[in-house]
Every structure is written in structure tokens, then in C-alpha cells.
Amino acid sequence: MSSSRKLLALVAAGLFSSAAAHAAEPSLGLGQTATPEQIAAWNIDARPDGVGLPEGKGSVSDGDDAYQENCAMCHGTFGEGGKYPRLAGEGKLTGDRPEQTVGSFWPYSVTLFDFINRAMPYPAPHSLPPEKVYAITAYILNQNNLVGDDFVADKNSLPKVKMPNEGGFIWKDPRPDTHDSDCMKNCRPVASVKISTTAEGSRVTPRTTGPLDTDIPQ
Ligand code: HEC
To answer: Which of 40, 81, 109, 205 is the most buried (most CB within 10 A)?
Structure first.
């Protein structure tokens, strides 16, 4: 072990032992214990299967009003977008210029609720009550022709709305893990290392440059 590695190991050991010592101390006199209400206010995630969705419900027609009031100025009256992302329309993901909408892209309807609930409206995230978020979610799903005009979203009905692109996501990363260990002695000189292949060359990661260039008329 080089002397600098030894030093690092000692510093790391020192850090761990002081962290352990701190954990044993009753209090540093800093901050305050979070109350159950504070924890509940942060614990807002809703899973695709519906776990975590709050009480409340909202219809497509209530959602129309709430959407026009809170969202249309950026995303368009019908979700057609403009300066801000498009949410609905005839989007298709096939082709060189995929059109991303909630209907063409999003894998789970509950995730739409979750995203609107935590991140929108953009200037005042998480400011809408669950009823309005349910209603706006219902309205956007309706604009994407995924639910009827009489749909009412709540914690039971929403997870049942299946999204067309659910199967379009790859949940398992097909790229191989690299297995390597640090060389500690008699290491190969860096200059002798040659790159034999790349992720792009092995076709395990999409190209980020190139293909579209060939579409540009010459
Ligand atoms: C001031 C403009 C503004 C307002 C108002 C607004 N948004 Fe957004 N919205 C944005 C921007 C900007 C993004 C992109 C944010 C990002 O990518 O991080 C976005 C992204 C989204 C997305 C994700 C789109 C996608 O497919 O990536 C959804 C869904 C959405 N907004 C819904 C809403 C809803 C519902 C409301 C009303 C409750 C709302 N937004 C209000 C500006 C706005």
C-alpha cells in the first residue's frame, strides 16, 4: 500500500469511528425531530399499482375547469403544448422525430397523477388539493382518448387505466457489468492500454450522434 493510500485508509477509519461516536451521543442540540405531520407532507409518492394514492376523486369535467385555470396557459387549451411540453394529441413515438405526449409515452397513469401532484403547476408545485389533481389527471387522460368523458379518477379507478406504451420501456439494462479490480502492484503502463471496443460499437447503447445527419438533404 502506498503511503498516500495508507493515509486515506486511516482518515476513512477515523471518519467512521467519529460517525459511530456521534450516533451514540443523545443529541447535538441541532435541528428538531420531524413530526408525523411533517413526514406525511413529504411522503407523497404514488406507485404505478396505486399504493400511496390519496383519498379524493375528480371527474373529467371538473378537470377541464381546473386544467384551464392552472395549466392551459402553458400546455395549451387541449394539451397541445407550444412553448411548453405537449400533453395530448396524435403523438407517435415511431419515426426519426418521435412525438411525445402523455398518451404516446407515459407508461403508467398513476405516475401522471404523481408527477402533476409533486411538480405542477410549474410556478407553484404541489399547491393543488388531491381532488383537483385527480380531476386534471382524468382530463388529460381523456384528451388522450384513454378514458371516456364520464371517467372519475380515484385511488381505485386510476391504476386500472392501462397506458399504450407500458410495454415500450426496458426495465432491465442489457448492458454487461464490468468486472475489474484495482491494480496495486506491477501494473500495466497506462500508455499500453488500448480501447478494443465501445458500448456504441457493441450496439448495447443507442447512438447519440450521427443517424439524423444522413437525413439532412445534401
Ligand atoms: C408556467 C408554465 C407551466 C404551467 C402553468 C404548468 N406547467 Fe406543466 N410543464 C411546464 C414545463 C416547463 C414542463 C417541463 C418540466 C421539466 O421537464 O422538468 C412541464 C411538464 C409537464 C408535464 C410532463 C410532460 C412530459 O411528458 O414530459 C406534465 C404532465 C405537466 N407539465 C402537466 C401540467 C399540469 C397538469 C399543469 C397544471 C396543474 C401544469 N403542467 C402547469 C410548464 C408549466
So the answer is: 109
Query: Is 0.70 topped by the overall pTM?
Result: yes
Domain with 158 in it: 56-163
Q: Which residues of the chain have pLDDT under 70?
A: 1-25, 199-218
Whether 64 is covered by a domain: the verdict is yes
Q: Are 153 and 138 spatial neighbours (Cβ–Cβ below 8 Å)?
A: yes
pLDDT tens for residues 124-180?
999 999 999 999 999 999 999 999 999 999 999 999 999 999 999 887 887 778 787
Give one word for 193, left, alpha or beta, with left for phi > 0 and alpha for psi -120 to 50.
beta
How many structural domains does the chain have? 1
Does residue 23 form part of some domain?
no
CA gap 126, 163 in Å, rounded: 24
Which is the closest atom of ligand 1 to the Cα of 106? 26
Q: Residue 67 has which C-alpha cell?
A: 386544467
Contact assessment for residue 132 and residue 67, using Cβ atoms and an 8 Å cutoff: no
State the pLDDT at residue 172: 81
Domain assignment present for residue 156? The answer is yes
Ligand 1 binding pocket includes 132 (Cβ within 6 Å): no
Ligand 1 pocket residue status of 169, Cβ below 6 Å: no
Q: Is residue 7 part of a domain?
A: no
- What's the rounded Cα separation, in Å, for the pair 117 and 131? 10
Rounded to whole angstroms, the Cα distance separating 136 from 75 reads 12
Q: Is 146 helix (H, G, I), strand (E, B) or coil?
A: coil
CA dist 134 and 155 (Å) reads 9
